[in-house]
Amino acid sequence: MTASTAAVATDAELANAIRALAMDAVEAAKSGHPGMPMGMAEIALALWNRHLRHNPANPHWPDRDRFVLSNGHGSMLQYALLHLVGYDLPISELRNFRQLHSKTPGHPEVGVTPGVETTSGPLGQGFANAVGMALAESLLAQEFNAPGHAIVDHHTYVFMGDGCMMEGISHEAASLAGTWKLGKLVAFYDDNGISIDGRVQGWLTDDTPRRFEAYGWHVIANIDGHDVNAVDAAIKAAQAVTDKPSLLCCKTVIGKGAPNKAGTEHVHGAALGEKEVAATRAAIGWSNPPFEIPQAIYDRWSARECGAMLESSWDEKFAAYRAAFPERAAEFARRIAGDLPATFDSVVARFESAQAAKGETVATRKASQQAIEAFAAGLPELIGGSADLTGSVFTNWSGSKVVAAGTSGNYLNFGVREFAMSAIANGLALHGGFIPYVGTFLTFSDYARNALRMASLMKLRSIFVYTHDSIGLGEDGPTHQSVEHASSLRLIPGMDVWRPCDTVESAVAWAAAIERRHGPSCLLFTRQNCAFVARTPSTVDAIARGGYVLADFDPSSTGARAVILATGSEVSLALGARDALAKEGVAVRVVSMPCTSVFERQDAAYRASVLPAGVPRVAVEAGVTAFWRRYVGAEDDPHGAVVGIDTFGESAPAPVLFKHFGFTVDNVVKAVKGVL
Description:
By secondary structure, this protein is of the alpha/beta class. Helix content is 43%, strand content 13%. The strands form 5 sheets. A 6-stranded parallel sheet has the order 10-9-11-12-14-13, sandwiched between helices. The chain has a 5-stranded parallel sheet with strand order 1-2-3-7-6, sandwiched between helices. Strands 16-18-17-19-20 form a 5-stranded mixed sheet. A hairpin with a 2-residue loop joins strand 4 and strand 5. Helix 13 packs across helix 14 and helix 16 packs across helix 21. It starts with 10 loop residues before the first helix and ends with a helix. The N terminus is likely disordered.
């Protein structure tokens, strides 16, 4: 198409604009995935030009449709769309595809590119996020809508490919979406038969339509993905089915338009090359230079005017809603903004004081449940769940109401699906209006780890509750006993990992996780009882700093000094060792370190005041030792030691295991003497 073309662009020209931008950007970067954007161009045209309700001028309009690119390697499809419809993504950013600090990274990243709803790339997770978004829409609609006032009424659309279908998380999430009957979730399957290794029939022989039908989905099979009108009709049919999620199976040719590489793996994950780009231009009749789009095409793609009208119409609806239901409207606005109730701080303070006064010795998983009980009643946005372990991880409370198809609630039974559970929680957080928390045994965090990593990358307010946090779970043995997990989770950038030692630290940990707006938290709790530790009010306040002096040096002592750092159930061992060493003239400071990342965010002066230089240190935690070397010194440092476990556990009662693996007061005393 050239500048002299008629004023109204055709559908073919709109689709070819996507193809051109995709192949040119990938060619300029000399890396990327041009095949998917070129193959899904007509599907994207049907959805984005005819159905998607959004406003490029306000990517955060609450009642916008959500769009997720689960096959995120084809990111240039989304970038091309966002640019063409009028988001704040100028052509210069497309020229800068995959370059440092651009708004067009290799895979879509929420918070980087306006209009991107989730960070995708690890295949299948975007789909699970979309399930969480659709669930959020359904629950908010049931909670806030009133007759004549549908202020929550939008769809969630997700693109996915063969890789998403192969990943196990898609099976987990699709099953739950069908069970929950998420009728406003519409998935588009880009069925092009190609992955990086070639034609997929050698490793993907599922009957995908029948699989999704078995999950309880409405399925439309064999759609011609290059026929805009056929895709449009399928979308309309999906929108008409309100009691089931819909899967639109679209047959496409990967890299469509590339005369020599279309339909092959060679167009999947590499630039076409100058010759093939030129040949593609000729084949599709695209005579414009790279990154130049005729105005007529921009005019037909633009969603600015329509988007402004859609949002303005919603604003009018919300104004009427506010007039009719002022308190509910204010609550909706608070929830969507992510603000906590004004009373939350006082609720936390009262509960922490009550826990301190009670002085109860319980398992910290029980202390966790007590915190949920105290906070959830005043936090309707708090939505919990577990992976078929509610009676063990104690993630429910007296006001829990299980979500079922078509019914509202605040508790989710995920079944044994740790990965989907965590990614769906991320979707709930991404949508807004909810603070999700989900639970399982700590050792099963391995199943969900990439979702935790994505939560941290996206800076989400997701809370992951993990109980049975060490060999202390006992008889279930090494398959279930976490050894490396706490340290491993601490290595995820941006993840706050709390391992509290008693009821008061558990309360502080929960409050911190809820209050943390821009990052996820892992809360690690014990199966076994943990002794309550009495504290002064100022010491209780210090817990929130991640590490603090729980019991200080005896000021009257003139002998040797040492610092014992401990977390969770091992804090009581540190305190016992302090008492024993005091009788031998050794003064010990016990530092409880429930959250190392929060401690590291404190200023240097505070950290130095807690861990004074030149004083021998011993760390105690029922887990691997390497992590704690950053605090006590290298293995060859004679003034630092770690009491930990660098092997797998055994099957036996917890007290037997703690003694067997050296988690005793006597062994901690021995370690301290060894560093003096």
